[in-house]
Amino acid sequence: MTPVASGPYAPPTPSRALTVVSADGARLHVEVHGPEDAPPVVLSHGWTCSTAFWAAQIRDLATDHRVIAYDQRGHGNSPASSACTTHALADDLEAVLARTLAREEKALIVGHSMGGMTVMAAATRPRFREHAAAVLLCSTGSSRLVARSRVVPLGAGRLRTWLTGHVLGSRAPLGPVTPVAKSVLKYATMGAGSAPHMVEACARIVHACPRAVRHAWAGVLEALDLDHGVRELHAPTAIVHGAADRLTPPVHARALVAALPHCVGLTELTGVGHMTPIEAPDLVTARIRELVTTYVTVTGTEPEDGHRATPAQIKEGA
């Protein structure tokens, strides 16, 4: 299965691509888009997705930002790994930051769904704290994901939780992208008003994820508890959430607002589901630009390897 070949969700060609090796030897596919001397934005995608998920944001931002996007282990062009843990996710993000940013270079770090959980898992890590000027969390939560999910149309309780866990953790192949498959995906992850080309783009990305990878990470999400990571996420953090999100309903966004040490706003998008960067690309991109403008500016320094870079520094008093 390949991403869409044309339109706003067709993945743009990166300025350069590289392989980053994580702490346990896992190899991660990383793409860099845009001018090398522009303020950096790091994009971390969610469960069953890939760098293709950010196509609309990359295409817009790369005109005047250095956009760094990577495939989570087992997703996209990053090979699968036996280590499927939030610790591994944090290791991977730190490895990407270490390889692509200069010493003390500041970036806006954006995480969608499991990518947001990656940020929470890395919140106490020295490398993350060194590089995070600000954070944007899109459609994510820190705990009780299966219990609070509304993917299964039943009232809250043990039966819904059990069924949801079995649906999300299924080993069954998703098969080709058919009209029926797109309808199921749209119901579970997108708002009712999502345009057909948005649903097509999402379906192609999700169906490309190997079923063994999908199953393994579903187990991690079911047992997730990163509430402590939220409390340790001291960088200015904004939240974008879909009001019609069934996978991570708005209760998660409200919990994040209450727990974050430095929350700088919640944007709730009416009629939008879980796939906010694809369903509301302009609004998500605009929020990214706002945060870069507020918290990131470009100055000069020397990276660790001696090659010249132009990092971004957090604004004083922002």
Overview of the molecule:
InterPro entries: AB_hydrolase_1, AB_hydrolase_fold, AB_hydrolase_sf. The chain is globular. α1 crosses α13, α2 (86-100) packs across α3 (114-121) and α7 packs across α8. Residues 298-318 have low confidence and may be disordered. The chain is an alpha/beta fold. It is 38% helix and 17% strand. It starts with 15 loop residues before the first strand and ends with a strand. It has an eight-stranded mixed sheet with strand order 1-2-4-3-5-6-7-8, sandwiched between helices. Strands 9-10 form a two-stranded antiparallel ribbon.
Chart the SSEs and their pairings:
Blueprint: E1 16-21, E2 27-33, E3 40-44, H1 55-61, E4 66-70, H2 86-100, E5 107-112, H3 114-121, H4 126-131, E6 132-138, H5 145-148, H6 158-168, H7 179-189, H8 196-207, H9 211-222, H10 227-231, E7 237-242, H11 250-259, E8 263-269, H12 276-279, H13 281-295, E9 296-298, E10 312-314
Parallel strand pairs: 3-4, 3-5, 5-6, 6-7, 7-8
Antiparallel strand pairs: 1-2, 2-4, 9-10
Brief summary:
With 318 residues, this protein is an alpha/beta fold. 38% of the residues lie in helices and 17% in strands.
